[in-house]
Amino acid sequence: MIVVAGEALIDLVPQGTGALAGLKPALGGGPYNTAVALGRLGSPTAFCSRTSYDAFGDTLLDGLREAGVDVSAVQRGVEPTTLAVATIDAKGSAAYSFYVEGTADRLFTAPSELPAATRAVSFGTCSLVLEPGASAYEELMRNAAAQGVFTALDPNIRAGLIPDPDGYRARFKSWLPSVSLLKLSEEDALWLGGTPREWLAAGPAAVVITQGGDGLTAFTRDGAVHAVAGEEVDVVDTIGAGDTVNAALLHGLAAQDALSAEALVGLGADGWTRLLRFAARAAAITCSRAGAEPPYASELGDFQEAFCAVPLLRNQGSSQPRG
Protein backbone atom coordinates (compact mmCIF):
# COMPACT_ATOMS: atom_id res chain seq x y z
CA MET A 1 0.00 0.00 0.00
CA ILE A 2 1.08 3.57 -0.75
CA VAL A 3 -0.07 6.07 1.88
CA VAL A 4 -0.58 9.69 0.85
CA ALA A 5 -0.47 12.17 3.75
CA GLY A 6 -1.67 15.74 3.38
CA GLU A 7 -4.54 18.10 2.79
CA ALA A 8 -7.81 17.71 0.92
CA LEU A 9 -9.54 20.92 -0.09
CA ILE A 10 -11.94 22.50 -2.56
CA ASP A 11 -10.56 24.35 -5.58
CA LEU A 12 -12.79 27.16 -6.83
CA VAL A 13 -11.98 27.23 -10.54
CA PRO A 14 -12.95 30.27 -12.68
CA GLN A 15 -15.20 29.58 -15.64
CA GLY A 16 -14.10 32.69 -17.52
CA THR A 17 -11.79 35.67 -17.34
CA GLY A 18 -11.72 38.54 -14.89
CA ALA A 19 -12.03 38.81 -11.13
CA LEU A 20 -15.80 38.28 -11.15
CA ALA A 21 -15.86 35.17 -13.34
CA GLY A 22 -18.05 32.38 -12.04
CA LEU A 23 -16.32 29.83 -9.83
CA LYS A 24 -16.90 26.10 -10.05
CA PRO A 25 -15.99 23.98 -7.00
CA ALA A 26 -13.71 21.03 -7.67
CA LEU A 27 -12.08 18.42 -5.44
CA GLY A 28 -8.42 19.21 -4.88
CA GLY A 29 -5.31 19.60 -2.81
CA GLY A 30 -1.93 18.25 -3.96
CA PRO A 31 -1.91 15.14 -1.73
CA TYR A 32 -5.60 14.51 -2.45
CA ASN A 33 -4.98 14.62 -6.21
CA THR A 34 -1.99 12.31 -5.79
CA ALA A 35 -4.09 9.77 -3.89
CA VAL A 36 -6.86 9.86 -6.51
CA ALA A 37 -4.31 9.46 -9.32
CA LEU A 38 -2.72 6.48 -7.60
CA GLY A 39 -6.12 4.88 -7.08
CA ARG A 40 -7.07 5.39 -10.74
CA LEU A 41 -3.80 3.82 -11.85
CA GLY A 42 -4.62 0.82 -9.67
CA SER A 43 -2.12 1.16 -6.83
CA PRO A 44 -3.45 0.06 -3.43
CA THR A 45 -3.63 3.48 -1.76
CA ALA A 46 -4.65 4.95 1.59
CA PHE A 47 -5.21 8.61 2.44
CA CYS A 48 -4.01 10.03 5.77
CA SER A 49 -5.48 13.44 6.55
CA ARG A 50 -8.18 15.32 8.44
CA THR A 51 -11.36 16.48 6.72
CA SER A 52 -14.46 18.39 7.72
CA TYR A 53 -17.87 16.94 8.51
CA ASP A 54 -19.34 19.56 6.17
CA ALA A 55 -20.73 18.74 2.72
CA PHE A 56 -17.39 19.47 1.04
CA GLY A 57 -15.63 17.08 3.41
CA ASP A 58 -18.13 14.32 2.68
CA THR A 59 -17.74 14.84 -1.06
CA LEU A 60 -13.94 14.76 -0.82
CA LEU A 61 -14.13 11.36 0.88
CA ASP A 62 -16.61 10.14 -1.74
CA GLY A 63 -14.10 11.08 -4.46
CA LEU A 64 -11.39 9.05 -2.78
CA ARG A 65 -13.65 6.03 -2.36
CA GLU A 66 -14.68 6.29 -6.02
CA ALA A 67 -10.99 6.03 -6.96
CA GLY A 68 -10.56 2.97 -4.76
CA VAL A 69 -8.61 4.77 -2.03
CA ASP A 70 -8.81 3.53 1.59
CA VAL A 71 -10.06 6.38 3.81
CA SER A 72 -10.09 4.54 7.12
CA ALA A 73 -7.12 6.62 8.38
CA VAL A 74 -8.82 9.96 7.67
CA GLN A 75 -9.59 12.01 10.77
CA ARG A 76 -12.72 14.20 10.86
CA GLY A 77 -13.57 17.53 12.47
CA VAL A 78 -16.39 20.08 12.71
CA GLU A 79 -14.23 22.89 11.28
CA PRO A 80 -14.88 23.98 7.66
CA THR A 81 -13.06 22.70 4.59
CA THR A 82 -10.12 24.70 3.21
CA LEU A 83 -10.88 26.63 0.01
CA ALA A 84 -8.39 27.48 -2.76
CA VAL A 85 -9.40 30.06 -5.36
CA ALA A 86 -7.63 29.43 -8.67
CA THR A 87 -6.84 31.85 -11.47
CA ILE A 88 -5.86 30.53 -14.90
CA ASP A 89 -3.54 32.47 -17.21
CA ALA A 90 -3.51 32.43 -21.03
CA LYS A 91 -1.23 29.36 -21.09
CA GLY A 92 -3.46 27.37 -18.75
CA SER A 93 -1.17 27.72 -15.72
CA ALA A 94 -2.90 28.00 -12.37
CA ALA A 95 -2.21 30.30 -9.42
CA TYR A 96 -4.02 30.12 -6.08
CA SER A 97 -5.18 32.14 -3.11
CA PHE A 98 -6.23 30.22 0.00
CA TYR A 99 -8.85 30.43 2.74
CA VAL A 100 -7.29 28.36 5.51
CA GLU A 101 -7.96 29.96 8.88
CA GLY A 102 -9.62 27.57 11.30
CA THR A 103 -10.09 24.79 8.74
CA ALA A 104 -10.26 21.09 9.51
CA ASP A 105 -7.08 19.87 7.84
CA ARG A 106 -4.86 22.17 9.92
CA LEU A 107 -5.68 20.16 13.06
CA PHE A 108 -4.31 16.83 11.79
CA THR A 109 -2.51 14.76 14.44
CA ALA A 110 0.11 12.13 13.63
CA PRO A 111 -1.21 8.55 13.88
CA SER A 112 0.57 6.16 16.21
CA GLU A 113 1.35 3.80 13.33
CA LEU A 114 0.96 3.33 9.59
CA PRO A 115 -1.08 0.52 8.01
CA ALA A 116 0.82 -2.76 8.24
CA ALA A 117 1.13 -3.11 4.45
CA THR A 118 2.61 0.37 3.90
CA ARG A 119 5.44 0.38 1.33
CA ALA A 120 5.71 4.14 0.82
CA VAL A 121 4.39 7.42 2.21
CA SER A 122 4.02 10.59 0.15
CA PHE A 123 4.02 14.13 1.62
CA GLY A 124 3.70 17.66 0.34
CA THR A 125 2.03 20.99 -0.41
CA CYS A 126 0.06 23.08 2.13
CA SER A 127 0.05 20.38 4.80
CA LEU A 128 3.77 20.96 5.47
CA VAL A 129 3.25 24.72 5.86
CA LEU A 130 0.17 25.27 8.01
CA GLU A 131 0.57 24.69 11.74
CA PRO A 132 -0.17 22.87 13.91
CA GLY A 133 -0.73 20.15 11.30
CA ALA A 134 2.62 20.77 9.59
CA SER A 135 4.54 19.56 12.64
CA ALA A 136 2.34 16.46 12.82
CA TYR A 137 3.02 15.58 9.17
CA GLU A 138 6.73 16.22 9.75
CA GLU A 139 6.63 13.84 12.72
CA LEU A 140 4.97 11.20 10.55
CA MET A 141 7.61 11.66 7.84
CA ARG A 142 10.52 11.29 10.24
CA ASN A 143 8.98 8.26 11.96
CA ALA A 144 8.27 6.52 8.64
CA ALA A 145 11.83 7.08 7.45
CA ALA A 146 13.23 5.83 10.76
CA GLN A 147 11.25 2.61 10.25
CA GLY A 148 12.76 2.14 6.79
CA VAL A 149 9.61 3.10 4.86
CA PHE A 150 10.14 4.71 1.44
CA THR A 151 9.24 8.40 1.65
CA ALA A 152 8.41 10.80 -1.19
CA LEU A 153 8.26 14.58 -0.90
CA ASP A 154 6.66 17.04 -3.34
CA PRO A 155 7.01 20.51 -1.76
CA ASN A 156 4.61 22.04 -4.34
CA ILE A 157 5.39 25.54 -3.08
CA ARG A 158 2.49 27.93 -2.47
CA ALA A 159 4.49 31.06 -1.66
CA GLY A 160 1.44 33.04 -0.56
CA LEU A 161 0.96 30.66 2.37
CA ILE A 162 4.57 30.91 3.63
CA PRO A 163 5.06 33.95 5.91
CA ASP A 164 8.73 33.15 6.62
CA PRO A 165 10.37 31.94 3.38
CA ASP A 166 13.85 31.55 4.88
CA GLY A 167 12.45 29.60 7.81
CA TYR A 168 10.60 27.28 5.45
CA ARG A 169 13.72 26.77 3.31
CA ALA A 170 15.67 25.76 6.42
CA ARG A 171 12.88 23.39 7.42
CA PHE A 172 12.84 21.88 3.92
CA LYS A 173 16.56 21.10 4.22
CA SER A 174 15.93 19.46 7.59
CA TRP A 175 13.46 17.04 5.95
CA LEU A 176 15.87 15.79 3.29
CA PRO A 177 17.62 13.14 5.45
CA SER A 178 14.15 11.56 5.85
CA VAL A 179 13.28 11.64 2.12
CA SER A 180 13.87 8.82 -0.39
CA LEU A 181 12.48 10.55 -3.50
CA LEU A 182 12.24 14.32 -3.94
CA LYS A 183 10.01 15.56 -6.76
CA LEU A 184 9.60 19.25 -7.50
CA SER A 185 8.92 21.67 -10.32
CA GLU A 186 11.43 24.08 -11.85
CA GLU A 187 9.55 26.89 -10.11
CA ASP A 188 9.77 25.09 -6.76
CA ALA A 189 13.49 24.52 -7.23
CA LEU A 190 14.11 28.19 -8.05
CA TRP A 191 12.12 29.34 -5.01
CA LEU A 192 13.82 26.90 -2.64
CA GLY A 193 17.35 27.52 -3.89
CA GLY A 194 20.06 24.89 -4.08
CA THR A 195 20.74 22.24 -6.71
CA PRO A 196 19.80 18.59 -7.23
CA ARG A 197 23.33 17.56 -6.25
CA GLU A 198 23.12 19.50 -2.99
CA TRP A 199 19.76 17.94 -2.19
CA LEU A 200 20.99 14.44 -3.04
CA ALA A 201 23.96 14.90 -0.73
CA ALA A 202 21.53 15.68 2.10
CA GLY A 203 19.57 12.44 1.85
CA PRO A 204 17.32 11.57 -1.12
CA ALA A 205 18.39 8.79 -3.48
CA ALA A 206 16.79 10.56 -6.45
CA VAL A 207 15.49 14.02 -7.37
CA VAL A 208 12.97 14.48 -10.19
CA ILE A 209 12.38 17.97 -11.59
CA THR A 210 9.38 18.71 -13.79
CA GLN A 211 9.81 21.29 -16.55
CA GLY A 212 6.27 21.74 -17.81
CA GLY A 213 5.98 20.99 -21.50
CA ASP A 214 9.75 20.49 -21.71
CA GLY A 215 9.58 17.22 -19.80
CA LEU A 216 11.17 15.71 -16.70
CA THR A 217 14.72 15.15 -15.48
CA ALA A 218 15.85 12.70 -12.81
CA PHE A 219 19.11 12.99 -10.89
CA THR A 220 20.32 9.99 -8.90
CA ARG A 221 22.80 9.53 -6.10
CA ASP A 222 25.34 7.79 -8.37
CA GLY A 223 25.72 10.96 -10.46
CA ALA A 224 23.49 9.87 -13.34
CA VAL A 225 21.05 12.21 -15.10
CA HIS A 226 18.02 10.89 -17.01
CA ALA A 227 15.73 13.16 -19.03
CA VAL A 228 12.67 12.79 -21.26
CA ALA A 229 10.75 15.31 -23.34
CA GLY A 230 7.21 16.32 -22.51
CA GLU A 231 4.22 14.91 -24.36
CA GLU A 232 2.58 17.31 -26.82
CA VAL A 233 -1.01 18.04 -25.88
CA ASP A 234 -3.60 20.79 -26.20
CA VAL A 235 -3.46 22.21 -22.68
CA VAL A 236 -6.77 23.09 -21.04
CA ASP A 237 -5.10 23.83 -17.70
CA THR A 238 -2.26 22.45 -15.58
CA ILE A 239 -4.27 21.83 -12.40
CA GLY A 240 -3.16 18.50 -10.91
CA ALA A 241 -0.39 17.86 -13.46
CA GLY A 242 2.42 17.80 -10.91
CA ASP A 243 0.34 15.65 -8.57
CA THR A 244 -0.22 13.21 -11.43
CA VAL A 245 3.54 13.04 -12.02
CA ASN A 246 4.04 12.31 -8.34
CA ALA A 247 1.50 9.48 -8.44
CA ALA A 248 2.84 8.04 -11.70
CA LEU A 249 6.38 7.93 -10.30
CA LEU A 250 5.25 6.11 -7.17
CA HIS A 251 2.99 3.74 -9.10
CA GLY A 252 5.71 2.97 -11.64
CA LEU A 253 8.31 2.36 -8.95
CA ALA A 254 5.94 0.03 -7.12
CA ALA A 255 5.25 -1.86 -10.37
CA GLN A 256 9.00 -2.40 -10.77
CA ASP A 257 9.46 -3.34 -7.09
CA ALA A 258 11.74 -0.31 -6.79
CA LEU A 259 10.45 1.43 -3.66
CA SER A 260 13.83 1.64 -1.95
CA ALA A 261 16.78 4.01 -2.11
CA GLU A 262 19.00 1.29 -3.57
CA ALA A 263 16.46 0.38 -6.24
CA LEU A 264 16.15 3.99 -7.40
CA VAL A 265 19.81 4.00 -8.39
CA GLY A 266 19.61 0.47 -9.75
CA LEU A 267 16.88 1.33 -12.27
CA GLY A 268 19.53 2.51 -14.70
CA ALA A 269 18.96 4.52 -17.87
CA ASP A 270 16.31 2.23 -19.37
CA GLY A 271 14.28 1.96 -16.20
CA TRP A 272 14.31 5.70 -15.53
CA THR A 273 13.46 6.55 -19.12
CA ARG A 274 10.41 4.27 -19.08
CA LEU A 275 9.32 5.66 -15.71
CA LEU A 276 9.70 9.31 -16.72
CA ARG A 277 7.92 8.77 -20.04
CA PHE A 278 5.08 7.11 -18.15
CA ALA A 279 4.83 10.10 -15.81
CA ALA A 280 4.97 12.54 -18.74
CA ARG A 281 2.15 10.72 -20.55
CA ALA A 282 -0.02 10.66 -17.42
CA ALA A 283 0.53 14.38 -16.78
CA ALA A 284 -0.25 15.26 -20.41
CA ILE A 285 -3.63 13.54 -20.12
CA THR A 286 -4.39 15.53 -16.97
CA CYS A 287 -3.47 18.78 -18.74
CA SER A 288 -5.78 17.94 -21.65
CA ARG A 289 -8.92 18.32 -19.51
CA ALA A 290 -10.21 20.87 -17.05
CA GLY A 291 -9.33 20.58 -13.38
CA ALA A 292 -7.46 17.81 -11.60
CA GLU A 293 -8.67 14.79 -13.59
CA PRO A 294 -5.79 12.28 -13.62
CA PRO A 295 -5.96 9.31 -15.99
CA TYR A 296 -7.10 5.78 -15.36
CA ALA A 297 -4.82 2.86 -16.20
CA SER A 298 -6.85 2.13 -19.33
CA GLU A 299 -5.90 5.55 -20.77
CA LEU A 300 -2.15 4.98 -20.69
CA GLY A 301 -1.92 3.12 -24.01
CA ASP A 302 1.37 1.32 -24.58
CA PHE A 303 2.39 1.75 -20.93
CA GLN A 304 -0.35 -0.61 -19.74
CA GLU A 305 1.75 -3.75 -20.12
CA ALA A 306 4.77 -2.29 -18.31
CA PHE A 307 3.03 -0.50 -15.46
CA CYS A 308 -0.72 -1.12 -15.47
CA ALA A 309 -1.43 -4.75 -16.38
CA VAL A 310 -2.34 -5.85 -12.86
CA PRO A 311 -4.26 -2.65 -11.99
CA LEU A 312 -6.36 -3.03 -15.14
CA LEU A 313 -7.57 -6.41 -13.87
CA ARG A 314 -8.48 -4.80 -10.55
CA ASN A 315 -10.21 -1.71 -11.96
CA GLN A 316 -12.05 -2.95 -15.03
CA GLY A 317 -15.20 -1.11 -14.00
CA SER A 318 -13.53 2.31 -13.62
CA SER A 319 -12.29 3.38 -17.01
CA GLN A 320 -13.85 6.82 -17.45
CA PRO A 321 -13.08 10.17 -15.79
CA ARG A 322 -15.64 11.34 -13.26
CA GLY A 323 -17.81 14.32 -14.12
Question: Can you tell me about this structure?
Answer:
This protein has 323 residues and is an alpha/beta fold. Helices cover 36% and strands 21% of the residues. The strands form three sheets. It has an eight-stranded mixed sheet, sandwiched between helices. Strands 3-2-7-8 form a four-stranded mixed sheet. The chain has a two-stranded parallel sheet with strand order 5-6. It comes from Streptomyces sp. R28. Keywords: ATP-binding, Kinase, Nucleotide-binding, Transferase. InterPro entries: Carboh/pur_kinase_PfkB_CS, PfkB_Carbo_kinase, PfkB_dom, Ribokinase-like.
- Gross morphology is globular
Could you tell me the mean pLDDT?
A: 90
How many strands, what sense, and barrel or not for the largest sheet? Answer: 8 strands, mixed
Structural class: alpha/beta
What are the low-pLDDT stretches, counting only 5+ consecutive residues below 50? 310-323
Give the SSE order as H and E letters: EEEHEEHEEEEHEHEHHEEEHHHH
Number of strands: 14
Quaternary organisation: single chain
Beta-sheet strand percentage? 15-25%
What is the spatial order of strands in the main beta sheet? 4-1-9-10-11-12-13-14
Termini separation comes to: 27 Å
What share of the residues lie within helices? 25-40%
Computed over alpha carbons, the radius of gyration is 18 Å
Compute the number of helices: 10
EC number: 2.7.1.-
GO molecular function, one term: ATP binding
Domain Carbohydrate kinase PfkB: 2-294
Keywords: ATP-binding, Kinase, Nucleotide-binding, Transferase
